User: Fold this.
Amino acid sequence: MLGCTTVSRMFAAERRQVILELVRTTGAVSLRELAAIVKTSEVTVRRDLRFLEQEGLLARRHGGAVATDRPSYEPTYTEKTHVRARRRPPSRAWPRPSCGPATPW
Assistant:
């Protein structure tokens, strides 16, 4: 554990760095353990884990976090499908006639 890094007051960036180092060295850390090491509430640690996960630096799991080998940023499924949907041309119910009556029959 990183016992020497526990201090009474840490800035968010310092706290996140300690969390990230610990997750990378051990592979997985519980939420309670992280809260005890950085001497803050579990709510604050959850917020830090959410931030680090959004940056692609770790993966949150129930009750803690695990190290990840993912790239620094990968779009979510929703973002990917939204991009694909924007590229698709609009569908039309009736084909447009080049000339002639407006009704299809």
Notes: Residues 12-26 form the longest helix (15 residues). Residues 3-7 have pLDDT under 50 and may be disordered.
